[in-house]
Amino acid sequence: MTAVQWPNLFIVGAVKSGTTSLYAYLKQHPDIFFPEMKEPHFFTKPTPSEAQKHLITFVGDEASYLRLYERAEGRRLRGDASPSYLWSAQAATDIAAVSPRAHIIIILRDPIERAYAHYLMDYSEGVIDRPFLEALERDWCRPDKGWGVSQLYVELGLYTEPIRRYRALFGHERVLILLLEDLKRDAQAVLARIAHFLEIPAEPMTSIDTGKVHNSYKEPKGSWARRLAGHPVSRFLGERVMPRRLGEYIWNRWMQREAPKPPIDPRAAAFLQNIYTPEILALEAELGRPLAELRRSWVHTTSPAAPRGPLLSASPQAVYAGQGARPVLGSNRHVPS
């Protein structure tokens, strides 16, 4: 019996930036295998808090992780699409230790839009009840950080250091940087670029249906749906007992509905823009290209030079005081909290 091999293709993030769509598209290529479990988070080694233990699904031991790839059947590429790997320095190092020739795909999004999409997901699933600005400030200032411990709303949009880390470990030629806006605008062109990067035939990519939007915003059908989604028993049933596809079908079909995305609290947007301005300047220098796509939602002002000190030097309370606004899902307004 042939030993199961480690994955050699990793979609490492960013969270809420199109990783689900890339996973859905690439798993249709005959040279690529992805397991049904999109996000095993094995290399992040999560140690979730008691409050979030029921919300975090991951594979913790090597034997169980490698069993995910038993059906790869000799395909050239075996993939893992865990978005925690971009944030986790341990994950990058441990991936390099077992799969030093792996291909790394990173897809990025305007970090303000990313943080808000992350928050709306948490709100819809009953993970958090606070207004966005308050949730940002509390999460940023809490002393305990980690995957499955805090939400990392700000940290998951700090792209420069993780990209430098992966490039240092794997080499620039084995790390592909993509933008969500490009995927939205011309998915087939992005898939052709990925095929060239992976050195696999591009022709099978042309038959992939890229019209379906994966993991897009929907609102819960009511407070009952939020309570049920965040309850430990329903989480256990949906993620551990019933087939994964059935759980996703029930959530998407019976507990959510299409709705316009509520607008972001402008104070939260300004709070984030203050943090991310030097970050995007640093990322542009690292990649050697302008990144207007990552400022899509910003209120444009004259950009200052990137500071030499820490990016997160001030407390959020020192930047913006006051309470946020709670989104009324499915409307275009906010109500005071």
CATH architectural arrangement of the largest domain = 3-Layer(aba) Sandwich
Helix- and strand-based class?
alpha/beta
Task: Give the averaged pLDDT, no decimals.
Answer: 82
Q: What is the alpha-carbon Rg in Å?
A: 20 Å
| Head-to-tail CA distance between termini | 61 Å
CATH class of the largest domain reads: Alpha Beta
Q: Which fold does the CATH topology of the largest domain refer to?
A: Rossmann fold
Q: From N to C, what is the helix and strand string?
A: EHEHEHHEHHHEHHEHHHEHHEE
Report strand %.
Answer: 5-15%
Helix content percent band = 40-55%
Q: In what order do the strands lie side by side in the largest sheet?
A: 2-3-1-4-5
- Tell me the domain tally: 2
What's the short version?
The chain is an alpha/beta fold and 337 residues long.
Task: Record keyword descriptors for this entry.
single chain; 337 residues; alpha/beta; Rossmann fold; 2 domains; five-stranded parallel sheet; two-stranded antiparallel sheet
SSE topology:
Layout (H helix, E strand, L loop, with lengths): L8 E5 L5 H8 L5 E2 L28 H6 L9 E4 L3 H4 L1 H10 L4 E6 L2 H14 L7 H10 L18 H11 L4 E5 H6 L1 H12 L20 E2 L2 H8 L1 H10 L2 H11 L1 E2 L8 H22 L28 H4 L5 E3 L6 E3 L1
Parallel strand pairs: 1-3, 1-4, 2-3, 4-5
Antiparallel strand pairs: 6-7, 8-9
Helix pairs in contact: 4-7, 11-12
Descriptive overview:
There is one protein chain. The chain is globular. The protein has 14 helices and 9 strands. It is an alpha/beta fold and 337 residues long.
